[in-house]
């Protein structure tokens, strides 16, 4: 699960550590960040993660359908691609 800290780190490469809502660089200096930009990035990252998961589900369904069209049984399909 992607969270706000992931988004903050994604838009601020100089940040190496987050403790609570405080960000630090490699020298333990406090780094300021734009919370609104981080929240926007969080929405972007979550949308990308959702799209990735949906694509994986669609690909699996497509593979199952194609294997079934070839005449494989449900058990054989499960053995090949999993549940």
Summarize the structure in words.
With 83 residues, the chain is mostly helical. It has one domain. Helix content is 61%, strand content 10%. The protein contains 3 helices and 3 strands. The protein has helices spanning 4-11, 35-69, 74-81, and strands at residues 17-19, 22-24, 30-31. Strands 1-2-3 form a 3-stranded antiparallel β-sheet, with no helix packed on it. β2 and β3 (30-31) form a beta hairpin. The longest helix is centred in the middle third of the chain and has 35 residues, at 35-69. The protein starts with a helix and ends with a helix. The mean pLDDT is 95.
Question: In a nutshell, what does this entry contain?
Answer:
By secondary structure, this protein is mostly helical. The protein is built from 3 helices and 3 strands; from the N terminus they run H-E-E-E-H-H. The protein has a 3-stranded antiparallel β-sheet, with no helix packed on it.
């Amino acid at each position: 699960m992607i969270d706000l800290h992931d988004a903050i780190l994604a838009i601020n490469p100089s940040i190496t550590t987050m403790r609570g809502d405080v960000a630090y660089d490699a020298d333990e200096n406090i780094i300021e960040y734009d919370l609104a930009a981080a929240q926007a990035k969080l929405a972007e990252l979550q949308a990308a993660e959702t799209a990735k998961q949906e694509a994986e589900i669609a690909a699996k369904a497509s593979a199952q359908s194609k294997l079934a069209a070839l005449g494989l049984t449900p058990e054989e399909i499960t053995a090949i691609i999993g549940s």
